[in-house]
């Protein structure tokens, strides 16, 4: 999977967040940028939920990963005993 689109969107999102905190930007522009954040989030979440991304991170092994992490950190995850 090419992660460039995802990392580019995250970088743009971070810029927008930083820019909305700039007091010299007028209210209308900040409102527009907040709306842009929602659209960026929607796009990023869509990419993270895509089958291609799930395959890239080997999402099929999520249960094993949860068990491994809980074992490493000694956390009771509520997983049923096998």
Briefly say what this structure is:
The chain is an all-alpha fold. Helices cover 70% and strands 0% of the residues. The chain is built from four helices and no strands.
Helix content: 55-70%
Determine the structural class based on helices, strands and strand pairing: mainly alpha
H-E order:
HHHH
Low-confidence stretches: none
Describe this structure in words.
With 82 residues, the protein is an all-alpha fold. The protein is 70% helix and 0% strand. The protein has four helices and no strands. It has helices at 4-20, 27-48, 51-56, 62-73. Helix 1 packs antiparallel against helix 2 (27-48). The chain is elongated and about 50 Å long.
Element layout with pairings:
Elements: H1 4-20, H2 27-48, H3 51-56, H4 62-73
Helix pairs in contact: 1-2
List keywords for this structure.
82 residues; mainly alpha
